[in-house]
Task: inverse folding
């Protein structure tokens, strides 16, 4: 779930991924990781990217 201090860029629909955790990709950018519900044995995939609102604008997160 996005928070007021973050902008979110969805990659996969939340209902298709079982969230497993969060991984920092760069300063102010995190990936929400999870397993696809349709193939739980597959490697983890990115469900969404989260951008720190103090460092990125909404337009930058959408880009």
Result:
């Amino acid at each position: 779930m996005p928070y007021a201090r973050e902008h979110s860029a969805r990659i996969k629909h939340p209902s298709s991924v079982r969230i497993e955790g969060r991984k920092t990709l760069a300063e102010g950018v995190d990936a929400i990781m999870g397993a696809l519900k349709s193939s739980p044995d597959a490697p983890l995939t990115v469900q969404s990217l989260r951008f720190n609102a103090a460092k990125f604008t909404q337009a930058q997160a959408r880009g």
